[in-house]
Sequence to fold (121 residues):
Amino acid sequence: MNIEEFRDYCLAKPGTSEEAPFGPDVLVLKVMDKIFALTGIDTFDYINLKCEPKYAIQLREEYEGAIRPGYHMNKKLWNSVDTNGHVPDKKIKHLINHSYELVVSKLPKKVKEELSKFSGV
Fold:
């Protein structure tokens, strides 16, 4: 997966927007203004994705070295997922979906209703 594929995949999700609040070299993807993914723009080496804590540990064991505690993130809730081919693209897409769905599940009811108006979520 390259950064264009990653970006397009994320932006296709309902209610998703992109920003660069941490500077021009970090792409941040948000659903309804809540971060679910971020990565380096110039160096697309890994993606930080939110993850359910028990699943995060399981992934780190299964993909030792390729999935690690989230760099500069809450280590319990975020993983850094390598994009160098050690984690298959299909799995990366699954983890993007997991992160997106996890964030959506924590949105306030009113925001979820707003999201569902244009997304069918």
Notes: The beta strands are 16-19, 26-31, 34-40, 46-50, 67-69, 78-82. The two ends are 26 Å apart (CA to CA). DSSP finds four helices and six strands in the chain. Residues 42 and 109 are 37 Å apart (CA to CA).
